[in-house]
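Propose amino acids for all 82 sites.
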């Protein structure tokens, strides 16, 4: 799993170089497996399963249903749920 990071202030996920490219904060932490994430602009939430470059595969739990599915998203479209 490649080391992607998230900003503690704006919660964006990317491969930052010590400074967040969105809010210029230095509060950068490593994104780990099973970390809860959410898709920006959608009601999709899930947990990180696998990272392949800048693509993250998440286990989605659909609201109201007890079904789980695997979906892939670009890291820039996800935010960390704190």
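Proposal:
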């Amino acid at each position: 799993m490649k080391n992607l990071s998230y900003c503690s202030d704006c919660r964006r996920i990317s491969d930052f170089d010590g400074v967040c490219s969105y809010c210029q904060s230095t509060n950068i932490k490593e994104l780990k497996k099973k970390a809860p994430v959410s898709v920006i602009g959608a009601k999709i939430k899930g947990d990180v399963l696998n990272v392949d470059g800048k693509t993250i595969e998440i286990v989605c739990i659909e609201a109201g249903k007890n079904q789980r599915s695997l979906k892939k998203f670009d890291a820039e479209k996800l935010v960390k749920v704190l």
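The chain has no helices and eight strands. The chain has a mean pLDDT of 90.
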